[in-house]
Amino acid sequence: MNNIKQADTKIWTEKIRELNKGKEKKFHIMTMGCQLNENDSEKLAGILNEAGYIKTENIEDADIIIFNTCCVRENAEEKLFGKLGEVKKYKEKGVVIAIGGCMMQEKHITKKLNESYKFVDIIFGPHTLEQFPKDLYEKLSENKKIEDILDIDGQIFEGVPVLREDKIRASVSIMNGCNNFCTYCIVPYVRGRERSRNPQDIINEVERLASEGYKEITLLGQNVNSYLVSQKEKGEDVNFKVKVQAKEMIVNSFATLLIALNEVNGIERIRFISPHPKDFTDDVISAIKQSKHVCKLIHLPLQSGSTKILKSMNRKYTKEEYINLANKIKKEIPEITFSTDIIVGFPGETEEDFEDTLDVVKKINFEQVFMFIYSRRVGTVADKMENQIPEEIKHKRFNKLKELVEKQIEVQNKTYVGKSVSILVEGKSKNNKDILTGRTESNKVVNFEGTEDLIGKIIDLKIVSQHMWYLKGFYDKI
Ligand code: SAH
Ligand code: SF4
Ligand code: F3S
Q1: Which domains are delineated in the chain?
Q2: Which pLDDT tens digit goes with each residue over 218-245?
Q3: Mutate to test the pocket of ligand 1, among 372, 383, 389 (most ligand atoms within 8 A of CB)
Q4: Which residue among 339, 343, 389 has the greatest number of ligand 1 atoms within 8 angstroms of its CB, and so is best to mutate?
């Protein structure tokens, strides 16, 4: 594939090391977006680590502060500009301030930054992330302001160093960009067209993670079940002969990628976000069914339960098609559970449309619902629609949906009580150091008393009580 390149980060990180010789420099990254954005932050951390910087959680100690921005909803802008106001004071002691991420692809934002926030040193976008060490070197050696944004679709860069936060669960991006243009969404404009990583590169990364002791991976992409599809459509041969644990296999689709990754020794759980309902083909269903390590929880973004609104959103499925798909998957894999994303208050949404959304929520009984109030995004089709919904109605509907979801989750959590479940132990609870925390395959958080040696292991325990956001477990083999 000619859009895949090897990153030359090392050349620049070594030059930065040379510049900073003898000084202990620290970096602080603020991640403001989705899991892809977090994944990018881990790459930035990897780059800075290679360049000799040490990570700090304390912004006041940092010699370089990076904001990794998101622009999927409006409040992200207020948040960024608020934070910039707070960090301006650090400029006096020579701190470098850099802003990257999706929001930097929006022209009106970079214009505002250039006009009113002149103290920002480096502006870069998601397409130029791997060039960040070059930008930083130029900033440090020539003390000039850097703006490094590319309007093209971008490429896939392999070999960028990664510094991960977690030692048990890791995210692995398998593709970038989106071709769907849902009418509310800014992502296709800022992340460019779909492009997939080479499967062998993904497999190598997952094998490396397994050898480092990772137990769970989450495959990331805006539309994971169209992995390799755009290459296929361009007429490229996508039948990749790959090696997984020395075994030869063919990967030519998302389904075959799942089957291949299932073979990696040591990886106990494989998750993926997000598939698009319109592309959920039967081969993916059977791959999930046959792959022991693929979690039987599917995040299936609904967005709306109204066929009329779904059409206006350009989602390309109807209410009935969504429900039928969920039922079909459930029939094939009875233990499957679902989670979803829902937007309320999309332009033109009537009470009746909203009722359709509630109806689907009642029917599917999701394990988790990520709820969003529709937010107008400049440049999208929906932003130009006339029948925008007043804020108070949007909020009212949001609260009603939230109430329903919370009620459902309460009932659902009760069904866990008394049952034995398998959890992957992730670590100590943030609030209480004597308590360990883990998750079920269906992503429910379980807290329990246990010893540190259990961290990273999959164990069976009994659920003794349920709370809104977690379950309490009892582990009797301490
Ligand atoms: N590609 C993924 C996720 C995209 S962004 C997918 O298609 O599922 C994550 C979620 O943010 C979306 O699923 C959607 O529910 C929400 N979202 C996107 N644009 C939005 C907007 N303009 N207003 C409110 N929510 C939005
Ligand atoms: Fe946005 Fe739709 Fe693409 Fe998801 S599939 S990133 S919601 S355009
Ligand atoms: Fe993610 Fe936000 Fe970009 S949701 S892809 S960081 S716009």
Answers
A1: 4-148 (3.40.50.12160), 164-414 (3.80.30.20), 417-474 (2.40.50.140)
A2: 999 999 999 999 999 999 999 999 999 9
A3: 372
A4: 343
